[in-house]
Write a structure and sequence with these properties.
Blueprint lengths: L22 H18 L5 H11 L26 H10 L8 H9 L1
Helix pairs in contact: 1-2, 1-3, 2-3
Length: 110
């Protein structure tokens, strides 16, 4: 953001009471969590990192906002990112042996 009158706020920094939100705040947080995920499992593809972030996001105000069948809504996206859950999932992601894949998925459903 530009400083002074040319920026978002007339001052050099947005006052704390106005809040710091939206993509300006969430993009650096998501990038940092993605980096943590990759540090836990550097063999993940871009798509796998995105899947992990989606799967581990907590649905925010799910009683107020409708989440679609993919787990997304237009106000909150996939929800609030959870770095701890994302890193934990990343550390075991992709370690299911293909010979046991169907058995593993089936046993998780029951």
């Amino acid at each position: 953001d530009a400083m002074g009158a040319n920026g978002f706020d007339n001052g050099n920094y947005t006052p704390k009471y106005d809040g710091f939100s939206g993509t300006s705040a969430s993009a650096p947080m998501a990038a940092g969590i993605a980096a943590l995920v990759l540090s836990a499992n550097p063999n993940l593809s871009k798509e796998e990192v995105v899947d992990i972030l989606k799967i581990t996001a907590h649905k925010y105000q799910s009683t107020r906002y409708h989440y679609d069948s993919n787990g997304r809504n237009d106000h909150w996206g996939y929800g609030m990112l959870d770095a701890g859950d994302a890193v934990e999932l990343a550390s075991t992601y992709g370690k299911i042996q293909t010979t046991n894949f169907a058995k593993t998925i089936y046993s998780n459903l029951h």
